[in-house]
Amino acid sequence: MPETRHAFHEELENLEKQALGALDMIVATLERALEALMHQDVELAQIVISDDDRIDGRYLEVHQGILTLLATQAPVATDLRTVAALLHVIKHVERMGDQCVNIAKLIPITGHEPPVDEEMLATVVRMGELAISEVRQAKQAFELRDVGLAQDLVRQDEEINKLNREVFRMGVRAGGSDEDRLEWVLTIVMVARALERVGDNAVDIGEQVAFVVTGLFREFSDASHPLPS
Amino acid sequence: MTPPDETSPNRTEVVEQQDAASAAAPQATVGAPEVPTRPGEDARAGGHTISVDDLDAYYGEVHAIKGVSIDYAANDVTAMIGPSGCGKSTVLRCLNRMHEEITGAYATGTVKLDDTDIYGSSIDVVAVRRSIGMVFQKPNPFPTMSVADNVSAGLRLAGVKGKHKDEVVEKSLRDAGLWEEVKDRLSEPGVGLSGGQQQRLCIARTIAIQPDIILMDEPCSALDPIATLKIEELIHELKRQYTIIIVTHNMQQAARVADRTAFFWLGELIELGPTEKIFTKPDNQRTEDYVSGKFG
Fold first, then answer.
1. Which residue range is the domain that position B96 belongs to?
2. Which residues of B touch A215 (CB under 8 A)?
3. How many domains does chain B have?
4. Over the stretch A33-74, which tens digit does the pLDDT of each residue have?
5. Residue ranges of chain B with pLDDT lower than 50?
6. Which residues partner with B116 through β-bridges?
7. ipTM
8. Interface test with A, best of B279, B294, B295 (most A CBs within 10 A)
9. Domain annotation covers residue B86
10. Nearest to B107 by CA among A16, B98, B115
């Protein structure tokens, strides 16, 4: 039997490429934000902030594309789930972009030569690397409709969460009474929090992969009712 | 068809009794208290069911329907969808024995209205079609009759006359959502109405004789979008009283009006389920491919 909605499926594929392509933009933005953080590069941080307009623009494009598709094509079954999932994906992308902006805005606060705690900085950079890895994996899981890969995001996210708590403890220990030091420490704690949220967004995208494949929405992990460790 | 069940308190007897009652009491009125009990009258409050078991239908040597078993729930709207030639209209026509009207066509298996095998040897086919009414693709009001006469055409055959007839005409037109539009034109020709009005007139004609089941064979395919939406609204209203089975090529219409949807392909029932499930997460890949337009 010939495919009867070729144009629609082509349109849906393009929409998916646009939405998942936005995750590549997030990876690039995260890498810049981390580099800016490591080198206290205020100018690069400014580029991260400016570039968020591109991510917001992509969000609007995909959002409009989804509305058009719903209005004109009335997708059903897997197509409908994919469209619904893409709406979530692009929203999470937009949120991740905002977290990158949050990080970038923190960088100038501490000045050009802040009193850096190398161990704390290394830990937060490690968090950033894990967040980038999660975003890449979320994209791959969606492309491949691989629920196993999507669920594996929880494992990575637990590592980020653990490091986030560690950064907080380091901050408490390293704060002291030096105002500059305290300012830097608090900044890094907030950067860690932003990266932790990026990881959560990646897991949320993974949950959408499972929804597209199985038709059931389940949170991979329940933050409000965590299992006892 | 399967042999008639001699022992069960079956519909055959009821149909025969009802016909005799109609003949003996020409003053009887549909919808009035003195109306004799119609087939399945007791079940009306709870609606009526049709159960199809192992149905095979043929056009001569062409095996069009293959072993279809399906239960149509009471007061549900069940949509039958599938590509052209998949057999959905043939199944529909088997439900009120219209299929056998085609030369060389026949069916085997069991079709039960509530507990009565409508293919039983002593069943009155005309009474079956009165109990299981049908609305066709193209509105087909009787061309020489007025609006009112179109509605009451079936009543006259049942011997209903006079004031009661007028009451039934009004009620049927009201139930079909047409009364306000035609109440001042009752004596004008039915064919003078718009296409959508004509189709609602045909629905009024169908419900005037209080069927147990209403079959609809692509009832909106010849109508404009507004007339289509009016019919769909009407289907929502009618299902309170009737069990409705609709064949449609319009999948969005199935999604809008049906409680359950059945997908047919190459003469087989592929999947039957709640409409929401069929259009969001069907179990069968062929259903998925069809509803999402990967073939058709």
1. 11-291
2. 280-281
3. 1
4. 999 999 999 999 999 999 999 999 999 999 999 999 998 888
5. 2-44
6. B113
7. 0.72
8. B294
9. yes
10. B98
